[in-house]
UniProtKB/TrEMBL annotation:
Pfam families: Aconitase. Belongs to the aconitase/IPM isomerase family. LeuC type 1 subfamily. Residues 422-445 are annotated as: Disordered. This is 3-isopropylmalate dehydratase large subunit. It catalyses: (2R,3S)-3-isopropylmalate = (2S)-2-isopropylmalate. The gene is leuC.
Amino acid sequence: MGRTLAEKVWDDHVVRRAEGEPDLLFIDLHLLHEVTSPQAFDGLRKAGRGVRRTDLTIATEDHNTPTLDIDKPIADPVSRTQLETLRKNCADFGVRLHPLGDVEQGVVHVVGPQLGLTQPGMTVVCGDSHTSTHGAFGALAFGIGTSQVEHVLATQTLPMAPFRTMAVTVNGELPEGVTAKDLILAIIAKIGTGGGQGYVIEYRGEAIEKLSMEARMTICNMSIEAGARAGMIAPDETTFAYVQGREHAPKGENGEDWDAAVAYWRTLRTDDDAAFDHEVVIEGSELAPFVTWGTNPGQGAPLSASVPDPASFEDASARYAAEKALEYMGLNAGQPLREVTVDTVFVGSCTNGRIEDLRSAASVLEGRRVADDVRMLVVPGSVRVALQAVEEGLDKVFTAAGAEWRHAGCSMCLGMNPDQLQPGERAASTSNRNFEGRQGKGGRTHLVSPQVAAATAVLGHLASPADLSDVRETAGV
Ligand SMILES: CC(C)[C@H](C(=O)O)[C@@H](O)C(=O)O
Ligand code: SF4
């Protein structure tokens, strides 16, 4: 019988298989950041071990980095210690690090792909749940815990429990104004935040094949929010075009390494006779802009809908979760989502902080103004993304509209740096988690696409670009 994409990549990395034991996999790329690596390095020190493959290991600073005044000392002592510790560890163990201020610094899941380090068919790990992002290249990419980080540092291998396979097939075409973010929010609302548990999800179908690499990364990034072990998309011409020419892409003197790599990558497709353990089918043409109303990424609905009545949930735990969520979010059942007002808009993160995301937010903001009582932060996912945006003049579009243009990092995606919501503040955010307190204690988060974020910033309430049709005219543009 044929094999799925995930099974092929897995099989190609098994270095030891024994009855009744998890397979031991070789790891092609190990990404590190300041939050989940300190204890792993301490463990190495205690055991007198080194980093086995420094050539396959790379670190960046992202979670604790400020996005303003980056040349000043870091005020928060916890953040400062985290960054100093990473710097010392990387220096002591010979690991390549892109610190704050470096041109390759940025959110770890933005940096790997843009350097061409993330490639089809690889195994990629990082002590970070959104490592699933790299699956967009047809890599098997897992978030791992700190003790596993230590294991990979020491051995470049990892024992992995077997997984089940799920296909999420998206047929047809996404309607105009519907983005990868809307699609993944709709998928999670459909299968639930636990729906992917134990599975590696392969996204396939016409609508997926048409997506850019940036959009595919948005989808795979949020696989973890459905509980999945990983998300993957088979590599194709779009993938090869994105990887080709990047710093770490295969080359060879006459391009022979590239040709050999592409020949192998073309085999990384699920065989026609392979069977998935579970299949979900979605009609892309039926989708609409999607936003969350609750406190987990599965509590979402089309923007045109209203806040659901908890009583409408048949399942008792879903009903209870909805009640708690509405209480925390300060929302009432039946309230139209378009009438929910926000004070903050955040465009950024490893979900939607890439150049295409900034372009799409800028295209909505061009010639318009952020509403007076709204604060909008635009935070590029990496310094490279920032430089590209500046080259295209996007930073000017943002600042002219009244938004703040910040330095690269995780920023307001989670409250580990100065960019935070105040208690009771409400944000439309292009990030991936709307958990209680995620963006700051008592902060309320609505997950949205970059386009919805920008339209929301202009109108001051949840909105899509379609709601803006006459605003630009009034502004005389
Ligand atoms: C801090 C880190 C461990 C965490 C993760 O694992 O994802 C963070 O990146 C997040 O998005 O919540
Ligand atoms: S941007 Fe957000 S989701 Fe991504 S790694 Fe940083 S904190 Fe995690």
